[in-house]
């Protein structure tokens, strides 16, 4: 039986895990003869270390976002794969990655985070690894942590990344496929057959970890007469209790949702969403063709995502100096604006060259060591696992 290892990072809920689970679900429904295992190199190294890193990361971006932004720009998205931070990561974790591969002996590795991709890329470039590796990107850009030249296949979210990988990093065009950011199949279902309310409903999301500046946003909506608001509080119990104490019929708090079908139904019940520019959430909402309003962006990757999304006309950025409900009305009640928004979303989807079935065919081809063809591009791989080659 063939084996695939899918590698996000850390255990906290994140877009990296959501994409990993979408791919696992996609493959398990089609191929019962393949073992798929999700693994985190940080937890494999040390459960205690993983918990410490997760706690530090969440506190860092919550309480001192400015310093996180500086570190991200200088070391992670600095247009250099030789930064001191990456060299330190390599020294600390590459031996653990080798041990993981020796123990698991996979036939294929899929990375949904740049850190494992970086480590595997180093092994590839030194001819220490002959297992095919796929990068599946979860943001609308590529930071410098992702491995590039040693990676066998890149599933990218847009044409801009394709161009960047080819012209700035020398990645062969045949190894790159524009797929968008994969979303779980649950969000492909449409159930809009319920009676629509006369009042527009707005979904407000601050992220599964309760991060995001939505408390101040809600203060403006407490006296609203125009919209009903559904607020995803994630794990932020304080926010949930605060909204519940208001006892307002037009603002409803919702705790952490684990069911994708419930989340999909929620998307189907609303007329727009106010959220942050996380790659997976935005991709889900674009799939549902909902107008997207950005209330804030976490430092680092979300800020870069926001630049891409606004440049492409896929989202509306909220101006906090102006009444927010007026901004919502001007967009939601304006059919011309909505039409432009939908056309931009359709244009974005037309960039995709490989659909879900194509991704499955590609993965199966790599597992079988066969040739995969798409749009006149050719990927030919004859792989063999170096049983004794996983060393440093």
Automatic annotation (TrEMBL):
Cellular component aspect of the GO annotation: membrane
Protein name, per record: Galactosyldiacylglycerol synthase
Molecular function terms from GO: hexosyltransferase activity
InterPro entries: Diacylglyc_glucosyltr_N (IPR009695), Glycosyltransf_28_UgtP (IPR050519)
Keyword Transferase on entry: yes
UniProt keywords, alphabetically: Glycosyltransferase, Transferase
Domain Diacylglycerol glucosyltransferase N-terminal: 16-183
UniProt similarity note: Belongs to the glycosyltransferase 28 family.
GO biological process: glycolipid biosynthetic process
Species whose genome carries this gene: Peribacillus cavernae
């Amino acid at each position: 039986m063939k084996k695939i290892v899918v590698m996000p990072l850390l255990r906290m809920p994140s877009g990296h895990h959501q994409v990993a689970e979408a791919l696992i679900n996609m493959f398990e429904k089609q191929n019962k003869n393949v073992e798929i295992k999700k693994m985190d190199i940080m937890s494999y190294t040390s459960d205690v270390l993983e918990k410490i890193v997760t706690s530090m990361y969440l506190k860092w971006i919550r309480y001192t976002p400015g310093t996180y932004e500086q570190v991200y720009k200088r070391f992670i998205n600095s247009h250099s794969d030789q930064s001191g931070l990456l060299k330190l990561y390599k020294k600390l974790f590459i031996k653990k990655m080798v041990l993981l591969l020796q123990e698991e002996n996979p036939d294929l590795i899929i990375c949904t985070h740049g850190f494992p991709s970086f480590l595997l890329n180093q092994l590839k470039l030194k001819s220490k690894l002959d297992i095919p590796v796929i990068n599946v990107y979860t943001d609308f850009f590529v930071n410098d942590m992702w491995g590039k030249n040693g990676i066998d296949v890149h599933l990218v979210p847009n044409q801009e990344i394709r161009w960047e990988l080819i012209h700035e990093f020398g990645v062969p065009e045949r190894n790159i496929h524009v797929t968008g950011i994969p979303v779980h199949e649950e969000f492909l279902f449409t159930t809009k057959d319920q009676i629509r309310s006369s009042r527009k409903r707005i979904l407000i999301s601050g992220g599964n970890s309760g991060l995001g500046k939505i408390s101040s946003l809600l203060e403006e909506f407490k006296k609203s007469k125009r919209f009903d608001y559904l607020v995803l509080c994630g794990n932020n119990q304080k926010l949930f209790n605060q909204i519940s104490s208001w006892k307002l019929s037009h603002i409803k708090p919702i705790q952490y949702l684990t069911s994708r079908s419930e989340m999909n139904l929620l998307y189907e019940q609303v007329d727009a969403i106010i959220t942050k520019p996380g790659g997976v959430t935005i991709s889900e909402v674009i799939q549902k063709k909902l107008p997207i309003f950005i209330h804030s962006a976490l430092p680092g990757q979300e800020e870069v995502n926001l630049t891409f999304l606004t440049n492409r006309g896929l989202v509306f950025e909220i101006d906090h100096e102006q009444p927010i409900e007026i901004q919502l009305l001007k967009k939601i009640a304006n059919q011309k604006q909505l039409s432009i928004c939908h056309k931009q979303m359709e244009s974005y989807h037309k960039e995709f060259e490989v659909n879900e079935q194509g991704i499955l065919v590609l993965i199966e081809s790599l597992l079988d060591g066969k040739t995969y063809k798409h749009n006149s591009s050719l990927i030919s791989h004859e792989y063999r696992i170096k049983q004794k080659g996983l060393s440093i």
